[in-house]
Amino acid sequence: MYPSLTSAFFVYFTRVLRICIGDNETLVNNDAIINNGTTTNGTNLRILPLGDSITFGFNEASGNSYRRYLECMLYQAGNGVQYIGSLKNGNWSDNANDGFSGQTIDQIGITGNPEIIGTPKANVFLVHAGTNDMDQNLNITYAPFRLGTLIDEVTVSNPDALVLVAQIIVNANTTVNDWIKTYNEALPAVVGARSKNVRLVSMDKVLVGDLLDGTHPNEGGYLKMANAWYPALMSARNEGLIMLATQPFTNEGGSSLPAGGGNCSTLTS
Q1: Any idea what DSSP says for residue 43?
Q2: What range(s) does the SGNH hydrolase-type esterase domain occupy (predicted)?
Q3: Residue pLDDT, tens place only, 248-266
Q4: Level-2 CATH architecture, domain 5-253
């Protein structure tokens, strides 16, 4: 179900208002949290995975998407990890996300708005959005602009958060995939026009052979996505671009580990 037109308009107006004039309350709150929480060897990461059914893990047996692989990697690197979001999907406990199946960029911004502006604040956003715009041939020329609006919605309410924006994965439909290529080619300029905390992540290692149904990745495809997010996130962490997480923070990272121990790649994502 999509939001009603009335509620959608209200949230859209709120998004535009925030983008135009800012959110003073949020800015004050962010000023107050900079002395909170790190782990011994790394950083506490409260992550909001934001996107569509690819983020959710639709049509995948485990339902984990890239999220469990990535959490396992980050935790084993010494970071505290906690996912947040309005949805839950996956075969481990820390499976929250905002992956809205079937939704376009604008719809993701509307449906995801409560988590984007809410508390506890994420200090990392992972954005993979635009697949449904391409699949529906929805005013594709302006899709990069719509993504820019979504990024602005995130950064206005979370000015110190790290926002990693994916160039979206391939599609088995050659026409749709051509649109995806054009869309992805426009994203460096979109991301480059934002702050240093907004970074682009290539997903070009995911190939058509890594798809379950022509759109959604299989386990190997999701592992490739995690392997793209991970170095981008760790690089930003090492550069000091990730603000400290608000308290209280619950480190859920251990729940993502393989039951018998070992390398994260042995997981069924």
Answers
A1: B
A2: 50-222
A3: 999 999 999 998 878 999 8
A4: 3-Layer(aba) Sandwich (3.40)
